[in-house]
Amino acid sequence: MVYVSSTHYEDAYRRIADTAATTAGASVLLFVSMDADALCALRILTSLFKRDSIAHKIVPVSNYAEITSMNQTLAQNQQIKSIVFLNCGAQTDVQDFVTLRDDLVVMVIDSHRPFNLYNVFWHEQVQCLDDGDVEKNMGELREAFEDIEFGDSSSGEDSDESEDEGSDQDNESRIGHKRGSSEMLGDLAKNDRQRRKRKTDLDPESFMRMQQQKAERRDARAAHQQMIQAYYAQGSYYGQSCAISTLMLAEQLGHPPSLDTVWWAVVGATSQHVLQHIDSDGYAEVVRRMRDLVRRVCPTASTTRLNIDGNARSSNTSESALGSSATVTSSSQALLDSQLGLPGQPDDPPQRENIDPFNPYLEMIPEDEDEGYLRARAGAASNGEAGLLTSSKNIEQSVAISESTELKFLLLRHWSLTNAMQYSPYVATRLGTWSSKGRSRLDLLVAKLGLSRAEAQAPFLHLDPELKLQLYRKMHAIGADYNMADSLYAGFVRDYGWRKSRVSASDMVLAILALLQKDAWAGEYESIHISTSGFFAAYDSLSQFDILRAGLHGAQHLQRLVVGQGISMLERQAVKTLRVFRLAILGELESSSHVFGSPFALRQLALFLMQTLRERSKSAHARLPFIIAGPIAQETSEVDKLMVLGITPMDYPLVRPHMDAPFNRSTYAGESRNHFGIVFEQVASEVGAEAKQGFFDSSVMEIRRSDMSAFVDKLRRHL
Predict the structure, then answer these.
(1) How far is C-alpha 188 from the chain's CA centre?
(2) Is the pTM of this model over 0.70?
(3) Is 509 exposed, middle or buried (0-12, 13-18, 19+ CB in 10 A)?
(4) 462-480 pLDDT, tens digit each
């Protein structure tokens, strides 16, 4: 078994630790994908390495070509004994871009799916951490793979029953050899010689029996090949967050979860929700698991729960209000009810009294129990001084994590309510805030929420706590009237102490993504000085609030660009609706086109456009997949290239072979699949386009602008 089950992650880590003990220098090489989930996983994993005194080197990468370029250095550096892939490496055979020396150990922690079967079933040097899907759903697939790779492949030649006697030993000898190695080729040649030696004259009855067995064998192999092809053809999707996987690894090693490690796992998992990599049920599962960990590390932290119906809690009213959302499923609905404080939740922790839900660490102490206050009042020099003491409070400065009910208004705690709504794709796509009619509807909504124009435009942090509480209650009550019945969702926030605003996990994800792209916006902010590269600035933001604050400013700037660019394209009708997909291509002269050379910014723009058109389209076109292309900034080459990204809606119906097969099930993505990675490769090959795949997200591709027209034309016929 070369995959590592979810209950034995520590076995893979101990192999790395054992090899590191024999080396004086840095023995571990970390290839880290440039995304929020990988950064959070890196933080957790490096904390383990530091505890165990394991020297390591971090290499940020954005595609497999960059990993391949390191292979020559790796092959020459005998000091490197272990390689760890964080959120990369699972979908492509590791042997294709890394030379596996006999003394090299590889660990793959990746949320991209499907796995390359050679990584999980072939070589014991490559250890893929399984989130449970391999062990639970891929038993038949493993049998098919081992039959194709290790079984008897001589179905078209003469053979007899004696061949099967040693087949198990032959299979065992092949597992563990590198594909194409001299050892494996020698084994195959030896088996062929033995097979020819066993050939004898057979009587007619034995000959007919042998032919029947060969036919059955061919049929079985053909069925197994079809199963493997169906597994790869299902399309790409996402599994367990690699930040959660590394946190599980830390627990199995006996390191109890800390405030930081739990928060990093929360942020990493939330990034999948923000980027729509997992469905609502998958996110509900994530929040359940994280909620238990949060309560362990912050047992005294209160949960921001809202009594949506005001003074009275009516389950009928609450259920009807939340149940009107078509996108909230039963499991995520129950989770949201528990966050909102609705009845019927037996696992709700006991609530403390006298707690302000928006400043839960401001707790009143009765005067007759506050010994410090009583001593101070007894020694007060005047009644006035005593009166000042009467209003004193025992305030606990907190850096805890809390469960919270979040609104789908981006960066709300760091913006005004007006800006948070205007630049949130969730609100903008439903109200059409770029038009005068949409802005009027937004103003009417704000008025119904009980806020004046001045209050809505003021920093949300400075609003009266009662107004904030009222905002959540009223949004729940009237959201359905504005097609926003599911505007509330369960999440987490973290306090950073005095003079620092609370930060939600989703806001932190946006800040990290902004820092990863900081070269596109940092120059426009003279007050922001970040000396490190985008990757390490994002890495530092997970522990340094000043850098995080800069990332939040950058996230605001990028969100303005995304919404502004999207509105501009909608007004110019730059999005084409074809029969089977929608297409948008950014022009070279777009003012912000340089920003969208990153897959993350391009994805955010595509999601905005896709959601907007979905809200305003006929039912036949509402759930069409979306393809977007943006120019790539070429510093060293004059070749004009486009980055192409394909997105499939989470509820897009895909008909694929072996639909009922266990390997088609996913804990976090459900039945959602993105098939563009396979289609892009096939179409580019057919039209002879100069294209490059190899990004960790298989639905991303680079292509020459001159080849784009032929590519789209063929793609339209192919789908």
Answers:
(1) 42
(2) yes
(3) buried
(4) 888 888 888 998 999 998 9
